[in-house]
Amino acid sequence: MQGPEENPGTGGKKASPEDLAVKVVDTRGNPVARVPVAIVEFHNNGEGWGKPKYTNQMGLAVFPKIGSLYKNQKKPKTSARLLVPAKQTIEKDFDPLSLPRKPLVLTLPPTGKVVVHVVGPGGPPADGTVTVTLKPVRKGKKEGLAQVTPDTPVKGGKAVFPFVGLGLYLRLYPKTNVNDVSFLPEPPAAEGPGPTVPGGTVVFHIALTEGITLITGRILLSSGAPLSKGTKNLSQVFLLKRNGNFVARGVSQLKTDEKGRFRFPLPSGSSWKSRSHATSRILEIHLPYGKTGGDMKAVIDLSRSFLPGTIDLGDIRLVPPVFLASGKVTDSSGRPLPGAEIEACVKKRVVSRSYLSSLTDHSALSDEQGRFRVYGKDTKEAIILKARKAGWLPEKAGPVSPGTRGVHLTLWKGGRLRADFRLGPSLSLKDLELKLVFQEPGGKKRRLFTYKREGNQVLWESLPTGKATLEVFLPSCRDPLLKIPDIEVIEGKETKDPRLEGIDLSSRILVLDLVLEDTQGNPIPFARILGPGRHSV
pLDDT of 450-477, one tens digit each? Predict the structure, then answer.
């Protein structure tokens, strides 16, 4: 549950050079208090942020020790963002390794207020027991906008969102602090248009009618001994299915006491069936079986309707996974490779396409002598083993029969390739598409798209040996902007090719900043612009 957090001891000013100060003002330059601000970190898997801070009466929010948090990272990308629902994200980028001396200034656009009245079966809920999440969406569509607001606690029977952008369609989701299964796809409790005029107020009403069922039980190991204080690796997996097919999946940690007992809440009644039109609700309890890739597991069907109260499932015994194969992983010279990840799969076929389906819950790991044992789901089909390790080429072995011992997997050290680009001031590597094409035997081409960006440099790792062609594309353009053929990739080494040093693209690309407007001067978003060379944006 999030709540307003002031910045004690700062007086609204930066306390040290490693602190970051953010100031929020309105369109007239006046400071705005109690606005949630978060530091957003961008990475390869998307973006993330921590607990927000709220501005004080001077419109300031101070984030201490930001500089020291990123001192060991290379060129981190961060921004200060207002966690306020609006049509456009309100944020400003900054360099955490060179923090500004003055506060970053973020301008809050005209907003309105949303008040949510919440009532339970016995009247307003007790303060602090319910929170409400507000999510802006495009009306008539399932996807939401990027803006996220902190959960707002219900006090005195209502939750207040003082800053909500104008012209949004809103959905509201209540959560209780005793219901830790909120990852299940809840339908919105209320939805409708938000404020449309500056300072306007829109009121929503939510009635909480569904009670809580407390599920309890005791977890036993396969030996019959209770799983005492299992918290670190023990997890509960909820699966919602429709006619046998998954429609939702959620994972959370499950804790047991010294006697192996656990407890967690579930929504009572049968309304859960309306979520994604699910027809069954399955609980799986997982505990990793060492480093073998398999989990000790128990499966419980919770598809029935529950009345509010406590339901004891009794003793639940974890069943160990099945032994699939064992062997050793070495390099090309026969030396053992520790820390290699091994996965057991079976071949499946859908229509005319075949694929490998994993039998393991996660990857097994080879020990210091390169030895491994793989456990997973029981099967009578032939098994294919896949091994991988960072910096090495992945390898497959098989098919082998289930229970086979002495499988030998050999990994080859992959090559490395680095390219350095010279770009204009209005261009970055994010604006380009890079492809590395290998010519395989039989004339088949293999394209690699995964690489690391380091400033104006691009790094490919774990490459197969042979000759490759680097192709550089503009987005949505069929023809490459640049091709560098016959790049030699050598096993275990980084390629040194002078053609990859200082690739100058500044003279090859013309960047135009265009604003498309209608006849009344209003900007037109999401328009498609066709240009020469079959290039469109």
Answer: 788 887 888 888 888 888 888 888 776 7
Type and span of the H or E element at 106: strand 104-107
What are the strands, taking DSSP E only, across 180-225?
Answer: 190-193, 201-207, 212-220
Helix ranges, 337-496 (H): none
Q: Which CATH architecture has domain 322-413?
A: Sandwich (2.60)
Q: Which residue, among 322, 334, 406, 333, has the nearest Cα to 372 in the 3D structure?
A: 406
Specify the pLDDT at position 457: 86
Please enumerate in sequence order all residues whose Cβ is within 8 A of that of 476, keeping only pairs 6 or more positions apart, or say none: 535, 536, 537
**Cβ(260)–Cβ(221) below 8 Å:** no
Identify the pLDDT of residue 267. 64
Residue 60 CB-half CA count within 13 A: 18
Buried b / exposed e along 408-423 (16+ C-beta atoms within 10 A) = ebbbbbbbbbbbebeb
Q: Return the minimum-mean-pLDDT range out of 117-121, 168-172, 238-242.
A: 238-242
Residue given tokens 């407007």 in the structure block? 517
Question: Comparing C-alpha atoms, which of 302, 395, 430 is closest to residue 44?
Answer: 430
Residue 142 pLDDT: 44
Q: What are the residues whose beta carbons fall under 8 Å from the beta carbon of 127, sequence distance 6 or more?
A: 153, 154, 155, 156
**20-107: CATH class:** mainly beta
Domain segments of the chain: what residues?
20-107, 117-207, 212-317, 322-413, 415-504
pTM for the predicted model, two decimal places: 0.54
List of residues 6+ apart from 114 with CB closer than 8 A: 134, 160, 161, 164, 170, 194, 195, 201, 202, 203, 204
Q: In terms of CATH architecture, what is 212-317?
A: Sandwich (2.60)
Contact 432, 472 (CB under 8 A): yes
pLDDT given for residue 505 in this prediction: 79
Tens digits of per-residue pLDDT, 311-338? 888 999 999 999 999 999 998 888 999 9
224: left (phi over 0), alpha (psi -120 to 50) or beta: left
What is the arithmetic mean of pLDDT over 55-70? Answer: 86
Task: With cut-offs at 50, 70 and 90, classify the pLDDT of residue 8.
Answer: very low
Q: E-assigned strands of 319-477? A: 322-331, 341-350, 353-358, 364-365, 371-376, 383-388, 392-393, 395-400, 404-413, 415-422, 433-439, 445-448, 452-454, 457-463, 466-473
The CATH number for 415-504, chosen from 2.60.40, 3.40.50, 1.10.150, 2.30.30, is 2.60.40
Across the range 199-217, mean pLDDT stands at 83
Pair 274, 189: CB distance under 8 Å:
no
* C-alpha to C-alpha distance for 219 and 216, rounded to whole angstroms: 10
Per-residue pLDDT at 209: 66
For 18, 60, 63, the CA distances from 66, given in Å and listed in that order, are 6, 16, 6
- Is residue 404 a contact partner of residue 428, using CB atoms and an 8 Å limit? no
